[in-house]
Amino acid sequence: MLILTAKEIEKVYSMQDAIAADKQALKIYTQGDSDVPLRINFDMQKGQSLFMPAHIKGSDIVGIKIVSVFPDNPQLGKPSVPAQVLMLDPLTGEVCAMLDGTFVTQLRTGAVQGAATDLLARKDAKRAVLIGTGGQAISQLEAMLTVRPLTDVAIFDIDSEKGKQFTQQMKIRFAHFSANLYFSQHLDDDICQADIITSVTTSKVVTFNGDKVKSGTHINGVGAYTPEMHEIPASIVKKADIRVLDTKDGVFAEAGDIIDPIKQKLVSQSDFLELGDLVIQPQLCRQNAKQITLFKTVGTAVLDVYVGYDIYLKAKERGIGINI
Q: Which of 40, 77, 122, 156 is the least crowded, having the fewest Cβ atoms under 10 Å away?
């Protein structure tokens, strides 16, 4: 069995790799060539543990992500949300790899936004806004910078000190992209100018003013993943010319910022596409520079398993990781 830490994964796998893998994974999902059972959730004395399996039928890839939420862990010097991805060898059924699940989750979640932005944002997009600077924010920023030659990215967090510190760190980390990264002091003004907006928070109220969004903007809703959470304004869900989800089953069951506009009859379920539809039929992507496009993701184990196995193959080829 090959053990792969976050640092070892970074050596063999780029954001570009992950974006390409996410597109393929969701194409497979939309074509019905995968089996994704409902995740199993165990309530424990100190927290929760979730088991998320998936089977990619054509290539017989099977894996599972195990992620736990144990709020008291930091007092023990441990992460509050530990996670691992386990992969099975398609030929023998043996566990062939264990990957840092927290890093894989961050990577594939950034990449799925990058895939959507690549397929839906205007090719000449230059200005972006990133709302939220939590654990998923680094990969979200990297994905936007990877798929479009951005000149300016406004970064906002309701905790301004946290947001400013994050911005300074990202200026160093992503200096090679040559984009102007700055903390947003006037979010409305930055929203007005944005070609791409990505919100990655657990907010129960909308994170930006939908009336400020200009024609031609692409919007990503990445953070809100329960019926109580609402990042994206209902006005934008209604106004968007193209509405795309990572998976309909997941978003319609979990994402409050999509569930509520449907309940309010502002839109219907038939108004949404899956990202896999766009990969299969590129003509469904943006048709002109004035369309407002919207992407919403809550995640699926197909992404973890497909990306996890792709990472395993690349690491094995290069002799990276610890064999036990």
A: 77
Query: Quick check: 26 and 111 in contact, CB under 8 A?
Result: no
Tokens of 93: 């059924």
Phi then psi for residue 168, to 5 deg, are -65, -40
pLDDT tens readout for residues 242-273:
999 999 999 999 999 999 999 999 999 999 99
Question: What type of residue is 189?
Answer: D
Distance linking the first and last C-alpha atoms of the chain: 5
Is the pTM here over 0.90, yes or no?
A: yes
Architecture of domain 120-299: 3-Layer(aba) Sandwich (3.40)
Give the per-residue pLDDT at 39: 87
The CATH T-level fold of domain 2-104+302-323 is ornithine cyclodeaminase, domain 1 (3.30.1780)
Which residues lie closer than 8 Å to 208 by C-beta, 6 or more apart?
129, 131, 187, 188, 191, 197, 199, 233
Residue boundaries of the structural domains of the chain: 2-104+302-323, 120-299
Tell me, yes or no, if the two domains 2-104+302-323 and 120-299 fold the same way. Answer: no
Instruction: Note the maximum CA span of the chain.
Output: 57
